[in-house]
Structure prediction request, 140 residues.
Amino acid sequence: MNTSEQIKQIVKEKYSQIAERSREENASGCCGAGCGCAIVDEAVMAEDYTKLKGYVADADLGLGCGLPTEFAQIKDGDVVVDLGSGAGNDAFVARSATGPSGKVIGVDFTEKMIAKARANAEKLGFNNVEFRYGEYCTER
Prediction:
């Protein structure tokens, strides 16, 4: 049986590998197109980001299950925190909803995902979205 530290390391290694692959390569893994999660509720779990304002193709690794920003009721000027932000897909969509007066902070515990998200934000010149490394600590 794996300890929580071992499991965390396994997840980090897997997502580090995913960060380096294309959306198409990731589509067959969960929760990509091949996992069947969209069957739960097609209306809620639809994943066509391409029609959403703020969509950035380079940040879409094909890993999501649904469009959380569609239900978050994000308004102009809001501050949004995206936990498990990956390459930044949801953060960039949320950024467009917050407008220039809002801010989005993406948090991930995989260094390669943070690096990819930061590179995407820098390439696009986004100044109201940032990505930070962080992880859950079970010890108190």
Notes: The longest strand covers residues 103-108. The domain at 4-133 is CATH 3.40.50 (Rossmann fold). The chain has a mean pLDDT of 76.
